[in-house]
Amino acid sequence: MNDRNPAARTRYSRRWILTRAGLTAAAVAVPTAWLARSAMADDNTRATVDMEMVLLAAQVDPPKDNSDPTDGCKDHVLAVEQALQARGLLDAAQVDGHFGSSTVDAYSAWQKKLGYDGLDANGMPGPTSLAKLGEGKFDVSNKVSAGDRGDSYGGETTNTRTVQMLGAADDKLSWDITLTQGSYNSSNPGSAGTHDGGGVVDVNVNDLDDTQRWETVKALRTVGFAAWLRTPDDGFEYHIHAVGVSDPDLSTAAQPQVYDYFVGKNGLANHNDDNTPDEYRVDFTWWEKYQRG
Questions:
Q1: Local structure of 104: helix, strand or coil
Q2: Would you tell me how many other CB atoms lie within 10 Å of the CB of residue 57?
Q3: Among 251, 111, 116, which residue's Cα sits nearest to residue 184?
């Protein structure tokens, strides 16, 4: 969920993006595990909820076959669930630090209570709805925003966060990243709803050789996309499908693809193993974590 009033539509060059973001062209190695800042408060301070950790759990927890919290996320999710329970939106039994489907539904109900609907009530916390939920209970750190939904990259509609991510990935390559499909597009039934929201794009690879295709997958993953090379063996024409991890505007169909990527699967309905060669894999990350280096 974006939770923002749309800003003026802007098109960016990748050099401008990298200058503004303060990035370098070098790939950044990100560890597979991290320690989150604690959301628990002592007697004299309010709790602090890390929005990045809450978003991670909101994508990774619902498809699990258990209710184990995601590493580093439990305290932050607990604070959110306690606030939802206090507002009568979540049963006490579901306050467990696991952002499962019940918590997604409760958060969606909170968004609707604030007057949001459609994509803005997708159960993914946005910066405004999360801050309002925390009033008198917790502060919010590491806020994540999708930015302007009317932005574009190479003529295809995306949000500002996705534009910045594509620009950073493009800078790692000696060829250009071009899109065949952008975001906020519900007109393609072959996409199964994954492009209905933000953060999801398809990349054209027709003019690339095999090595270039895999290098493009690696560049996209490095900056925070869950990205896979789709092939005729998968039932598709060659292209790269990329999902911006922790984009608050992800459609309900795209959110589980982040979980698949997280556990080494292909993001398709069959949930087969990721076919990406080892040399083109990187540690799991997302845009804001990548920027911090």
A1: helix
A2: 25
A3: 251
pTM: 0.85
User: Where residue 30 falls among pLDDT bands split at 50, 70, 90?
Assistant: very low
Bridge partners, 242 (sequence order):
201, 227
Query: CA 145 to CA 42: how far, in whole Å?
Result: 29
* CA–CA distance, 39 with 160 (Å, rounded to integer): 29
β-bridge pairing 138-141 and 151-153: unpaired
CA 191, 194, 195, 199 torsion-angle sign? negative
Q: Mean pLDDT score of the chain, rounded to an integer?
A: 88
List, for residues 86-144, the tens digit of each pLDDT value: 999 999 999 999 999 999 999 999 999 999 999 999 999 999 999 999 999 999 999 99
H or E element, residue 179: strand 179-181
SS (H, E, C) 226-270: EEEEECHHHCCCCEEEEEECCCCCCCCCCHHHHHHHHCCECCCCC
